[in-house]
Structure formats: structure tokens, C-alpha cells
Design a protein that fits this description.
alpha+beta; Triger factor/SurA peptide-binding fold; Chitinase A, domain 3; 3 domains; 4-stranded antiparallel beta sheet; 11 strands; 50% helix; chaperone
């Protein structure tokens, strides 16, 4: 069964991209009517020529012409139906997007666009015709994707289950070097003592996430079995460590702080010092604060820039705090109420100009005023930290696998429904007196 893909930039393009390669025949005729469109004999002949050319280039034997023509007719009917759907949605592939797709196709074939153009010419295919068939393929693909996406429902439980299976596969040969802090709670401890232990565990975890030395905190606070070793348990596979540790680790990577989490004896915090046999994924998060001014008929670009320059000078001179300036000036109500703070975020969530600024600005430095699509800003990076995202990456991979599976299934079902509901007529059959 054919697997549908959102990208048509692979080898299958060459068997599909023939509808308009050949010049119209002098005695062309309609071979099939598809709703309000027609498929011409020249379309079939052109695709047949292309299929034969590709097969010859790959030394691939072909079935008889009767079988080939039936397969080609089916492809042309399905393509026509999808193009009709795209017209209903108002889908149009512009020239820039088309040029990018052609460049990508050429790169995949280890050619330049000029070499691709020459290759087509050597095989009797005009580049203009090739471009328009590529446009049709991309248009059909986008229409299919829009419709099929609406039919896909992926439950969180499905993602969790598949992610767990992927983790088990990935972790078979994985060892962890971990450290541990345990805050013990006696069986007869009062509610106040239990709450105090929980609060202390949260505070220790926060300190560790901000870079505090794990061994020092373990020596001072831990009541666990490895407290006198700075909490260090050394290298272990999951099956060798306490079950409660293994259950909490998931697919955590190097540097991950896990917890606090509760057991029958108290609260625990783990740190993954290192990992062997597991590909980990780490991202940089940035804690920044900013002041935003939006231009209007009253406030020009130059006026906004001057106001921010004045505020920056006052903050740097100690005449006003950043938080006070943000509350007084900023047009971003969400962050202004928090003194301009945006919280820990990965830079990718920001617009390009803001992303570039927070990625390159030294910690503790207030930027010069700069403009984005949102307005004028000054920004200060308060902290940076590397955060493990291995577990999230596994879940993303699980979601993509499930989506791909369901997309392929639903695409087939949708195309069958589309074809079943279409008016398809072959004039030769209609006129056949027998």
C-alpha cells in the first residue's frame, strides 16, 4: 500500500510529474471526465513516457501497457480530485515556494537547478512544464494534508504508551551516574513537620537548578545512605538502582535535577551527573525582562526610542529600578505586572529580532533600544541555563510516529471517499454500442 507523505520531493515525483510534459497531440481526445475536469489522452501518454524513462534508468522491468495505463489513469483521477479540493480551499502555491521546492529536489538528487534543468531537457521535458506539474503536486499534497489532519485524533495516553516503549528500547544499554538527597520524615511526624520538610525539599531543588553544588547540599541536609559520599551513588543501570529512582528517571539526560518526590521515608532529589549509552538533548533557557513601547499616531518611532533611551539611562544610573520602569512604561501587560520579567523560556518562542537579542546579549546587560514587529524594546538577560529535554524529545518522536501512522491510514480512507463521491465517466465506454 502506498504511504502518503506531505512532501512530494522524492523519487515518486518523477512518476507523478508528467501530466503536462508532452506537447499536445494534434488529435487529442478526452479519455476521462472527473467532475468538471477532463483528463486528456496526451496526459496519459506523457505519464506513460515518463514511467518508461524512469524504469529504464533504474533497470526496472515494467508490466504490460494495459496494466500501466490503468495505474496511470488512477493516479491522474486521484490527482485531479485533490486539485479540485485545493481550488475549493483557495490553495495556491506561489512562485517563491515553488522555487524552494525545486531547489530542494535538485539538492536531494545532488544537482544544481541548472543541472536539473539540463537533465529534463535531455529527456525531452520542458522546464516550464515540469514547474507547473510540481505546482500541481504540491497543491494536491496541501489539500490532502488539510483534510486528513482534521480526521486525526491522538490521545495523550497513546503518546505516553509509545514513549514508554521507545524509552525501554533506548535504555536497554544505558547507565546513569546519579547523586541523591533524602530529607527523612519520621512516621509520627506532625503535619507541620511534614510540610516543613516538603518546603525545604522544594527550596533545595530550586537551588540545585540554579547551579548550587549538589555534594555540599547533600553533606549538609541529606539523611540518605550516601550522604557521607556527597550523595554520590555512582554508575548504575536502571535495574540496579532503587525502583523509586528508576521510576522517576524516565529518559532524563545529563545534568537533570529530578524532584522533589515523596516515598514512605521522606522526600528525595536526584541529579543525573552523567549518562552512558543514551543520546541526550539539551536546550538553553533564558530568563529575561523587557520594556515594550508601541508606536501610534501619538508616539512615533523616534519618540519611542527616546523614551526607552531615557529609561535605560535612569536604570543604569540607579535612579529607577527596571521593575518600576516596566510597570510605568511597558505596553506588555503580562510582563509589566511582573516588573518586565518574561520567565524562563527557550529563545525560539520569540520573534527573530528579539530572539537574536536575548541569545547574544551578555547576562546583566541592558540592551540599547531595538525594534521588532511588536514595537520598541529594551531587554536585560537575567540568567541562562541548560535544561535537559530528552524526555520531551522522546514524547515528540512518539507523537510524530503516531501522526504518521494515522495520517497514512486516514489519507487512504479520505481518497477512497473522495473517489466514491465523484462523477467519473469515460466517454469511450459511454459510446460503446455493445
Amino acid at each position: 500500500m502506498k504511504k502518503w507523505k506531505s512532501s512530494l520531493l522524492g523519487l515518486t515525483l518523477w512518476s507523478l510529474a508528467a501530466g503536462s510534459f508532452a506537447a499536445p497531440q494534434q488529435l487529442d481526445k478526452v479519455v476521462t471526465i472527473v467532475n468538471d475536469s477532463v483528463i486528456l489522452q496526451s496526459d496519459v501518454d506523457a505519464m506513460l513516457k515518463t514511467v518508461r524513462m524512469n524504469a529504464a534508468g533504474q533497470n526496472q522491468p515494467l508490466p504490460s501497457d494495459d496494466i500501466l495505463v490503468d495505474q496511470i489513469m488512477e493516479k491522474l483521477i486521484i490527482e485531479t480530485l485533490q486539485i479540485q479540493q485545493a481550488e475549493q480551499f483557495g490553495i495556491r502555491i506561489d512562485d517563491n515556494r515553488l522555487d524552494q521546492a525545486i531547489s530542494q529536489l535538485a539538492a536531494e538528487r545532488q544537482m544544481s537547478v541548472a543541472q536539473l534543468r539540463q537533465y529534463l531537457a535531455d529527456n525531452g521535458i520542458s522546464f516550464a512544464a515540469f514547474r507547473e506539474q510540481m505546482r500541481r503536486d504540491l497543491t494536491a499534497s496541501e489539500a490532502r494534508t488539510i483534510q486528513v489532519r482534521r480526521r486525526i485524533n491522538i490521545l495523550p495516553q497513546e503518546v505516553e504508551l509509545l514513549a514508554e516503549q521507545l524509552n525501554k528500547q533506548n535504555l536497554q544499554d544505558t547507565s546513569y551516574n546519579i547523586s541523591h538527597i533524602q530529607l527523612r520524615i519520621s512516621e509520627d511526624a506532625s503535619a507541620e513537620a511534614r510540610e516543613a520538610a516538603q518546603q525545604q525539599a522544594r527550596e533545595l531543588a530550586q537551588q540545585l537548578k540554579q547551579g548550587a553544588d549538589f555534594a555540599n547540599l547533600a553533606y549538609r541536609y541529606s539523611k540518605g545512605p550516601k550522604a557521607l559520599q556527597g550523595g554520590q551513588w555512582g554508575w548504575m543501570r536502571k535495574e540496579e538502582m532503587p525502583t523509586i529512582f528508576a521510576d522517576q528517571l524516565g529518559a532524563s539526560g545529563k545534568g537533570a535535577i529530578i524532584g522533589p518526590f515523596r516515598s514512605g521515608v521522606g522526600y528525595h532529589i536526584l541529579k543525573v551527573n552523567d549518562v552512558r549509552g543514551l543520546e541526550t538533548i539539551s536546550v538553553t533557557e533564558i530568563n529575561a525582562r523587557h520594556i515594550l513601547l508601541k508606536t501610534s499616531v501619538i508616539l512615533s518611532d523616534e519618540g519611542a526610542k527616546r523614551q526607552l533611551e531615557k529609561a535605560r539611562r535612569a536604570i543604569m544610573a540607579g535612579e529607577q529600578s527596571f521593575a518600576d520602569a516596566a510597570q510605568a512604561l511597558s505596553a506588555d501587560p503580562g510582563s509589566a505586572a511582573n516588573g518586565g520579567e518574561l520567565g524562563w523560556q527557550t529563545p525560539d518562542i520569540y520573534v527573530p529580532a528579539f530572539k537574536d537579542k536575548v541569545e547574544t546579549l551578555p547576562v546583566g546587560t541592558i540592551s540599547e533600544p531595538f525594534k521588532t514587529v511588536h514595537g520598541w524594546h529594551i531587554v536585560e538577560v537575567l540568567e541562562r541555563r541548560d535544561v535537559d529535554r530528552t524526555d520531551a524529545a522522546v514524547k515528540n518522536r512518539a507523537y510524530r510516529i503516531l501522526f504518521s501512522r494515522k495520517f497514512n491510514e486516514e489519507a487512504q480512507a479520505w481518497l477512497q471517499e473522495l473517489r466514491a463521491g465523484a462523477y467519473i465517466e469515460k466517454p469511450e465506454e459511454t459510446n460503446d454500442p455493445s
